[in-house]
Design goal:
By secondary structure, the chain is α/β, with parallel strands linked by helices. Helices cover 43% and strands 14% of the residues. The protein contains 15 helices and 13 strands. The strands form three sheets. It has a six-stranded mixed beta sheet with strand order 8-7-6-9-11-10, sandwiched between helices. It has a five-stranded parallel beta sheet with strand order 1-5-4-2-3. Helix 12 packs across helix 14. The chain is globular, with a radius of gyration of 24 Å.
C-alpha cells in the first residue's frame, strides 16, 4: 500500500509512525521531521512493539519501502510506503519555501548564530594557509551537497568584506545527474542566491562499468574537468568543500589502508594544469557545525546522486559494503567515547611530525631512511 506526500500531510501526526529505512550514512544528509530510523531487518520487531500504530515507511526513492510495507501488511500490521520516498518529500518541501526569505535567513545565520563556529573558522583557514591572495580568480566548485553550498555562501560573504581585490566564479559540473537531482541543485542555487554556471559531462557514464575503485576514478575525472573549465574562465584556483572531518578521516585512512602517513593539504599546486591551484577553505570547519547550519535553516541537499548511490540499494547496506571512510568515521566515534580530544589530536599530529623519530620518510619523490643520518654527531638539543 502506498501513501503520497500530500496524503501524509493530511494525517494526524499522533495516528502514525514515520519510519526511515535508509542507512545511517544516507540519513546524515537529512530526514523527514519526526522520522524514526529502523533498518529493514528490524521492521518486524519494531512493528510488534507498536501493534496499534499505522506505519509509514520511506526509503530514498520509494522502491525498497514498497515490498517492506507489503510484508508488514501480510503480517497483519497497518503499513504504507511513502510514494517517491525521501526525494519526493524533498521536492515538495522546496516548492513551499520562499526564496528571498531563505537567502536572508541563511546569510543572517552565518553572521550571528554560526559566526564563531563557521564564519570565523573559514576566515581563519583563509588567513592561516594564505588561500586567497590579491588578484586571484577562484572557481568555487559546487557539487550540490551541504559542504559546497555552504562554501559558496561563505565566499559571497568574504567578497562583502574583502580587503583586497579578488574574483569568484561559482561552478557546478553535472557529471550525469538524474533530472530530479539536477532540479534540486538548481532550486537550491536559486533559493540561496548563488549565481552559478552549470556545465555538463558524462563522467558517471564513463565510470559506471568500472569494477575497481569507480569512486576514486570518478573523483579524479571530475577534478580534471573542473580544472579545465575553470582555466577557460580565467581562474587560477579551484575551491573544494572538504572540511575538518574529511582531513582527520583521510589521515587515518592513509595509515590503516594505505600504509602511509599523509594528510589532505589545505592547498596544492596542480601538476597537470600549470598555474592552477586547489584550495580547501573549509579546512577548519567541523561537519557537525555544517549539519547544524543546514538544519537550522531547514535546507535540504543531495548526497552524491551518482549511479552507485542514487538507488534504493543503499537502503540495505551490509558491513562488507561499507566504504572505508564510513568505517573510519565509526572508528573515530568509538575512540571519542574514551578520548573526547581524539579528533584534535589526529589533526595536530600532522603539525608535529618529528623526522628524527621516524624510520623513513619521502620528500621530492625520494625515500630517506633514518640510517642515512644515524651515525652523524648528535646536537645538544637531541634527546633519546
Amino acid at each position: 500500500m502506498e501513501l503520497t506526500v500530500q496524503e501524509l500531510a493530511k494525517l494526524e501526526q499522533t495516528t502514525y509512525l514515520l519510519i526511515d529505512m535508509r542507512s545511517e550514512e544516507t540519513r546524515a544528509y537529512g530526514m523527514l521531521p519526526g522520522a524514526i530510523p529502523v533498518l529493514p531487518e528490524d521492521l518486524s520487531l519494531f512493528a510488534a512493539e507498536h501493534p496499534d500504530k499505522t506505519l509509514v515507511l520511506y526509503c530514498a526513492h520509494g522502491e525498497a519501502s514498497i515490498p517492506a510495507a507489503e510484508a508488514l501488511c501480510e503480517e497483519g500490521y497497518d503499513a504504507y510506503s511513502l510514494t517517491g520516498g525521501y526525494l519526493a518529500w524533498l521536492r515538495e518541501q522546496m516548492a513551499r519555501q520562499n526564496d528571498e526569505e531563505i537567502q536572508t535567513r541563511v546569510e543572517t545565520s552565518l553572521r550571528k548564530r554560526f559566526r564563531e563556529k563557521i564564519w570565523c573558522n573559514f576566515t581563519k583557514a583563509v588567513r592561516q594557509y594564505e588561500l586567497v591572495k590579491p588578484g586571484d580568480c577562484i572557481a568555487v566548485c559546487i557539487s550540490g551537497g551541504k559542504d559546497s553550498m555552504l562554501m559558496a555562501k561563505l565566499f559571497q560573504e568574504l567578497k562583502l568584506h574583502n580587503k583586497f581585490p579578488f574574483e569568484v566564479r561559482f561552478l557546478v559540473m553535472d557529471p550525469g545527474y538524474s533530472p530530479a537531482n539536477r532540479q534540486i541543485i538548481e532550486d537550491n542555487l536559486r533559493k540561496l542566491g548563488i549565481p552559478a554556471q552549470i556545465f555538463e559531462s558524462d563522467i558517471f557514464g564513463s565510470v559506471y562499468n568500472v569494477e575497481k575503485s569507480p569512486c576514486y576514478l570518478c573523483a579524479r575525472m571530475r577534478r580534471g574537468y573542473l580544472y579545465n573549465f575553470a582555466k577557460q574562465l580565467g581562474c587560477n584556483k579551484i575551491a573544494l568543500g572538504h572540511h575538518y572531518d574529511d582531513v582527520i578521516e583521510t589521515i587515518l585512512m592513509g595509515m590503516l589502508w594505505g600504509a602511509q602517513v599523509q594528510t589532505m593539504m589545505p592547498k596544492l599546486h596542480s601538476t597537470n594544469f600549470p598555474g592552477m591551484e586547489l584550495i580547501r577553505p573549509m579546512y577548519l570547519i567541523r561537519e557537525d557545525d555544517i549539519k547544524a547550519w543546514r538544519d537550522a535553516n531547514d535546507l535540504h541537499f543531495i548526497q552524491c546522486a551518482c549511479r552507485f548511490t542514487d538507488t534504493c540499494t543503499t537502503c540495505r547496506p551490509n558491513e562488507e559494503a561499507k566504504s572505508k571512510r564510513q568505517q573510519t568515521k565509526q572508528l573515530i566515534r568509538e575512540l571519542k567515547k574514551t578520548n573526547p580530544e581524539v579528533e584534535a589530536h589526529i589533526f595536530r599530529s600532522m603539525e608535529n611530525v618529528c623526522l628524527d623519530t621516524v624510520i623513513a620518510y619521502k620528500t621530492g619523490g625520494r625515500k630517506i631512511s633514518f640510517l642515512e643520518n644515524y651515525d652523524r654527531p648528535r646536537e645538544s638539543s637531541e634527546t633519546e
